[in-house]
Amino acid sequence: MSATILSIEVAVFTTVAKTAVDSHGHRHPSGAHEVHEALLTITDTDGAAGRVLGQPDHVRESVLDRYLRPALLGQDPFARERLWAALARRQRGAGGSLTDRALGLADCALWDLAGRRLGLPVWKLLGGARERISAYGSTMCGDEIPGGLATPDDFAAFARALVDRGYRAVKLHTWMPPIPRAPSVDRDIEACAAVRDAVGPGVDLMLDAYHWYSRTEALRLGRALQELDYYWFEEPMDEASIASYRWLADRLEIPVIGPETSGGKNFTRAEWASTGACDILRTGVTDVGGITPAVRTLHLAEAFNMDCEVHGNGSANLALAGSCLNYRWYERGLLHPHVDFDEPPPHLHTIVDAMDDDGFVTLPPQPGLGDDFDLDYIKAHTIASW
Ligand code: LLH
Ligand code: MG
């Protein structure tokens, strides 16, 4: 008889972070401080385990007891499509308590388990489309930190440093509330122009602007980016309004990319692709509920002759590069002059997405997703488990 899912467990542990989010959810540098993270482990009756890191809130004990365990225990861990659908359907009556994040973490753990059981990296199971992917340097949002990202010149100097480090593309996240005087279309344009000046014409540049500009503000900003030969324009308006993005994409030459944060998983992405609301589609394991629906989105875009760029870093987003060729740029970040992105946190031996001097990240050779967990550290720092 084939193995079935035996247990689903969460360990919440303390670790150290050197960045923190502000009152509006944007990440900035901070002094080293203690944070809590969660390791979700799914084990099968043959002893194979799949592991994934998440936020404790997304895999609360009640989420495991009410949804994940009833849907998954005793099931074939390789039946990912069926298990994902079973969980997604439970969301309808769950009143928001079973999130896409929770679905995504369960799905990623099942992919990790499959890879470990078969002795193959997940990216190869997804199709082995390539062995490495170009990375872009994705900056943190603008701030007020001396020597940080406080001025257009700071963005210019940092972009130059990123190109010198090997990046062939750079994406700016400009100033957003609660930073004083933000947002400002004029200041965004100033920063984008300073960055173009600093890196010259041969580097691809993108802007992820304030997410709540009006249509007319977004159009003015987009037109300026066109003049500066930017590569894509991301999330300048509330993504709930597909009509607004269609309005914008119709008026601009620069590719409009989206949606990143909209709910509705791959279904919403199909609406964006089929109605012309974007020129490049966007997906990501934390945004659409796992690797399984993210792959669907990537293939959907391919059938529309569209690129589909993946939001966010990490092993599961990196593994998606194995599923297709129309995902061109791995988002490496968020980066800041005061933060060493290459330094692993204490619960990892190494980072999964080391980048070479030519700006490429090599897909990991290890079975599963390739995360190099320090399980001894996690065990020694576990403060709660369920
Ligand atoms: O607003 C922010 O802080 C960024 O947009 C952030 O969410 C980042 O993850 C992003 O959008 N990257 O593309
Ligand atoms: Mg974004």
Key phrases:
alpha/beta; Enolase-like, domain 1; 2 domains; binds ligand LLH; 9-stranded mixed sheet; single chain; binds magnesium ion; TIM Barrel
Summarize the structure.
With 386 residues, this protein is of the alpha/beta class. The protein has helices at residues 61-72, 80-90, 100-118, 122-125, 152-165, 185-199, 215-227, 242-251, 265-275, 285-288, 291-303, 315-319, 375-380, and strands at 5-21, 27-44, 49-54, 132-139, 169-173, 204-208, 232-234, 256-258, 280-283, 308-310, 329-335, 348-350, 360-362, 372-373, 382-385.
Rg (CA only):
21 Å
Name the average pLDDT.
98
In CATH, what is the class of the largest domain? Answer: Alpha Beta
What compounds sit in this structure? ligand LLH, magnesium ion
Taking the alpha carbons of the first and last residues, their distance comes to 28 Å
CATH topology of the largest domain: TIM Barrel
By oligomeric state, this entry counts as single chain
Query: Which geometry do the CA atoms define?
Result: globular
Account of the 3D structure:
The chain is an alpha/beta fold and 386 residues long. It has two domains: 5-119 and 375-385, Enolase-like, N-terminal domain (Enolase-like, domain 1), CATH 3.30.390.10; 124-362, TIM Barrel. It contains 13 helices and 15 strands. It has helices at residues 61-72, 80-90, 100-118, 122-125, 152-165, 185-199, 215-227, 242-251, 265-275, 285-288, 291-303, 315-319, 375-380, and strands spanning 5-21, 27-44, 49-54, 132-139, 169-173, 204-208, 232-234, 256-258, 280-283, 308-310, 329-335, 348-350, 360-362, 372-373, 382-385. Strands 4, 5, 6, 7, 8, 9, 10, 11 and 13 form a nine-stranded mixed β-sheet that branches. A four-stranded antiparallel β-sheet has the order 3-2-1-15. α5 (152-165) runs parallel beside α6 (185-199). The longest helix is centred in the first third of the chain and has 19 residues, at 100-118. It starts with a strand and ends with a strand. The relative contact order is 0.15. Residues 208, 234-235, 260, 311 line the site of magnesium ion.
